[in-house]
Amino acid sequence: MKPIKIGNIVIENPVILAPMCGVTDAPYRHEVAKFGCGYTVSEMIASRAALLDLKNANQKAQRGEFEKVMAVQIAGFEADVMAEVAKKIADQGADIIDINFGCPVKKVVNGMAGSALMKHEDLATKIMESVVKAVSIPVTVKMRKGWNEENQNAAKLAKIAEDVGVKMVTIHGRTRAQLYDGKADWEFIRSVCDSVKIPVIVNGDIKNGQDARCAMEISGANGVMIGRATYGKPWLISQIIDELCGREVKIEPCAKGKWQIIASHMEGIAELYGKQAGVGIARKHLSWYSSGLCGSSEYRGRINQCNDFDEVMRMTGEFWGI
Ligand SMILES: Cc1cc2nc3c(=O)[nH]c(=O)nc-3n(C[C@H](O)[C@H](O)[C@H](O)COP(=O)(O)O)c2cc1C
């Protein structure tokens, strides 16, 4: 695994935590970064909404204490609004601005944002140009293969991105039409790597070190981005880094170690959102942490019926034998 350069920023081990709405908030990124993940991306921030509700945008763009290089992702379809939001976020200390051309969600693409922009190359170009011009930090783009099977223009759009000053592209190896169906196409990403000189990151269905190695070999990409496989396993990315660097892979934390991670993660959630608003987010992560363990479905049933943060934590301590 070789370091990559995103503009003037060097990432020693390009194994990147994917942006995931409702998951990769500051408390979670903080835990993942503690394990040595050197590059994390925030949840997407809807640009127009961000101008109206700065508190929510600031919450999403907040840096976890251990985060090294942190990108904040913005979505939208109005170039001037996106440029304004990018500038605000850069002024608040983000290292990188990532633009979302990949979100498949209906309410996002109906507003012409996310992956819908892959159908509108002129508008996508204007957005990239405006954001690059607005900030002095590097700008990156995350996209899919294309809109659908007949329109797979990621290689073309990546070249346009490079030409307007974007410093890295990440490709999720599915089209928008696929949503999350089928298997991510790592082979396709080779065509993107062939079309640009900036770093290309392969994303989709990478669950472990072996997948990461395979995805890089098949695609020719310079690094990997991992999303869902990290659910309940903030240590996974560091294990993948170990494996790709040919080092001995650190073993999974023991139950006591996991409890310490969980306690710190939950403390972060309570601090960021408050206990009342944070309990739903806490329960989601707690369910993932318990996945596959003996008695976990009964535990999940109980916490999912409880709206009191402290009581959920009491049940969690009991489940983990604390
Ligand atoms: C719950 C969830 C939320 C997501 N939110 C975002 C987002 O805010 N921005 C984005 O670019 N991609 C988002 N994605 C897509 C992921 O970043 C990633 O591209 C996708 O999950 C495929 O990678 P994986 O197979 O490693 O999970 C999201 C995915 C999930 C499952």
Which stretches are low in confidence, meaning pLDDT under 50 for 5 or more residues running? none
The kinds of small molecule bound in this structure are: flavin mononucleotide
Instruction: Spell the H/E element sequence.
Output: EEEHEHHEHEHHEHEHEHEHHHHH
The CATH superfamily of the largest domain bears the name Aldolase class I
How many E strands?
10
The percent of residues in helical segments reads: 40-55%
Q: State the CATH class of the largest domain.
A: Alpha Beta
Description:
FMN binds at residues 73, 142, 172, 227-228. The active site is at 103 (proton donor). This is tRNA-dihydrouridine synthase. Residues 16-311 form the DUS-like FMN-binding domain. This protein is of the alpha/beta class. It has two domains: 4-244, Aldolase class I (TIM Barrel); 255-319, Orthogonal Bundle (Non-ribosomal Peptide Synthetase Peptidyl Carrier Protein, Chain A). The chain is built from 14 helices and ten strands. The protein has helices at 26-34, 47-52, 54-61, 79-91, 106-109, 121-134, 154-163, 189-195, 209-219, 236-244, 255-273, 275-290, 296-303, 309-319, and strands at 4-6, 9-11, 15-17, 39-46, 69-75, 96-101, 139-146, 168-175, 200-203, 223-226. An eight-stranded parallel β-sheet has the order 3-10-9-8-7-6-5-4. Strands 1-2 form a two-stranded antiparallel ribbon. The longest helix is centred in the C-terminal third of the chain and has 19 residues, at 255-273. The model has no long low-confidence stretch (mean pLDDT 96). Residues 18-23, 43-44, 73, 100, 102-103, 142, 172, 203-206, 226-229 line the site of flavin mononucleotide. Flavin mononucleotide binds next to strand 4.
